[in-house]
Structures are given as C-alpha cells and as structure tokens.
Amino acid sequence: MPWPPDRGGIVRLVTCQQGSKEWIAARVGVCTASMFRTARSRKKGSSERTEAALDYAFRLAVEILSGEALDDNFETWAMRRGHELEPDARIAHQADIGVYVQPVGMVLSDDGRFGASADGWIGDDGGAEYKCLVSPAELRTTLIGHDLAKYMDQVQGNLWLSGRRYWDFGIYCPAMKAIGKDFFRWRIQRDEEYIEAMVADLLEFDSLVQDNVAELRKLAA
C-alpha cells in the first residue's frame, strides 16, 4: 500500500484552519477524503465511473495545471455552517470522551495527490470527523438507522492517510439540545481490507486525473 508505508505516522501535515486561505491552497489539485466516495462512484450496474466522478477528475486536472482552486473561495451554506460549528462539536466530543481533541489541518500523501481534512487527533492512535447535519433524511438514517455507509470512504480515508487505528465519527446537532443530547458518536476501527480496496480504486481514479492533465497539455501544444 503506497501511503503510509507503515504505521509510522503522517507523511505530510499542513497546519491550518479549515476554510482558511491556507487550507484552500493545500487542497488544490488534491483528491480529498470528503470526495473519495464521489471519485469511486460507478454507474449503476456498470464498471464505468459516474459523470460526477469524471467531472471531479477533470476539475483536479485543471487545478494541477493552474495551481489554483477552480471554484476559488466558493463555500456552500452547509460548509460554512460546519466550519462555524466545528469548535462547538470538538468541545462536545471532548466532554463525551473525557480527553483533549487536538485541532489538525490537512493530511497529505507523500506525492500530494491525496489528502484529508482531519477534524482532530485523539492521542497517538485516534482521530475525529464531525458532521453538523440539518437534513432530516441524513439525521434519520444516522441517528435512528445508524447507517454510516455514506461516510465510510471519508473515515477510512482519514485512517489510511494518517496511519491511525480508530476514528470517532460525530454528529453535532444543536437542535437536539432540546432533549439534552446534541452530540452523537461512533468509534470506527481501521479496516485494512476496506482501505486496500479503496486505495486500489483511488489509484485508478488518479490515472484518470493524469490522463486529463496530459490531454489538456496537448491543447496548449
């Protein structure tokens, strides 16, 4: 497996605040864990990648060539809300587990092609991911159905890049303070088989990105 070569730790860490100019710059041309699911997506009943995956590969190729974010400082309302609520989510998480959760930044593979915005470190072996969901459908499937499949690529992607053993996946929902429970947590262990399959798929996706880079260079020749 390309990264990390062992559990020796992170290859590269960019210390920055999520949403900052430094954070945006660190993500340029990088396939990030939050997009691993999109990058791996296939058409139903087919081995062909979805249009969303193809568009993402092309976007990364443009960013690699330009050195700039294609969408610049674009931030959805949900993204902005998540960044604003992350400190509160971390405080709630710390109260839940009784230990300090250290803010991180961007974790990158040795070649800089893959990365993850880790929401926090827990000691030497753990990490954290927070979602501040407002969608009734997403809240219902996670809180009532305990269905975390949608987030597994991101969580295992963080575990892959960081070399850590477990990841706390947390849902922070201030509206639930009405019942005295605004933070919900699942501790997810590192799954080597899952990671191996995911990495193989991501490397195929990266080949597509590099093909796009080559094709775009031809346009300028």
UniProtKB/TrEMBL annotation:
<feature type="domain" description="YqaJ viral recombinase">
    <location>
        <begin position="22"/>
        <end position="164"/>
    </location>
</feature>
<dbReference type="InterPro" id="IPR011604">
    <property type="entry name" value="PDDEXK-like_dom_sf"/>
</dbReference>
<protein>
    <submittedName>
        <fullName>YqaJ viral recombinase family protein</fullName>
    </submittedName>
</protein>
<dbReference type="Pfam" id="PF09588">
    <property type="entry name" value="YqaJ"/>
</dbReference>
<dbReference type="InterPro" id="IPR019080">
    <property type="entry name" value="YqaJ_viral_recombinase"/>
</dbReference>
<dbReference type="InterPro" id="IPR051703">
    <property type="entry name" value="NF-kappa-B_Signaling_Reg"/>
</dbReference>
<dbReference type="InterPro" id="IPR011335">
    <property type="entry name" value="Restrct_endonuc-II-like"/>
</dbReference>
